[in-house]
Design brief:
Number of strands: 4
Strand content: 25-35%
Radius of gyration: 13 Å
Largest sheet: 4 strands, parallel
Structural class: alpha/beta
Shape: globular
CATH superfamily: STAS domain
CATH architecture: 2-Layer Sandwich
Number of domains: 1
Strand order of the largest sheet: 1-2-3-4
CATH class: Alpha Beta
Oligomer: single chain
Number of helices: 4
Distance between the termini: 15 Å
Order of helices and strands: EHEHEHEH
Length: 105
C-alpha cells in the first residue's frame, strides 16, 4: 500500500511512479493507493496512474484507490480513470479486503 498525502504535482509524480514500481516488485500486479489525504492529482500524476493501469491490466492485476476525497473521485471520473479495467475505487479498506482477501492471500 502506498499512502499519498497532499498534492501530487508534476515534481511529485516521479516519486509516486518510483514508489509504485518499488511496491510492485518483480511479480506484483496489485497495488493499493490510500488517497485519504490526497488533495490534488496533477495531469502528470494522473498520467502515472494511467501508465500503471496499462501495465497491470494485461497481467490481470489492478490498482485499488482507497478512501479518496470527493474531489478526487470526481476527477478520476472526469478523466475516465475510474472506468478503466484494472482500476477500482473503494470507500474504505474493508471493501478492498472483500475483493482481494486478507493480507498475504
Amino acid at each position: 500500500m502506498i499512502r499519498i498525502e497532499g498534492d501530487v504535482d508534476p515534481e511529485d509524480a516521479s516519486n509516486l511512479e518510483r514508489a509504485a514500481w518499488d511496491a510492485f516488485g518483480s511479480e506484483g500486479v496489485r497495488l493499493i493507493l490510500d488517497l485519504e489525504q490526497c488533495t490534488h492529482l496533477s495531469s502528470t500524476g494522473l498520467g502515472v496512474l494511467f501508465s500503471l493501469v496499462r501495465w497491470v491490466r494485461p497481467k490481470g492485476g489492478m490498482i485499488l484507490a482507497v478512501r479518496p476525497q470527493a474531489a478526487i473521485v470526481q476527477l478520476l471520473r472526469q478523466v475516465h480513470l475510474a472506468d478503466e479495467r484494472g482500476f477500482q475505487v473503494f470507500a474504505d479498506l474493508e471493501s478492498v479486503r472483500e475483493v482481494v482477501g486478507p493480507p498475504g492471500a
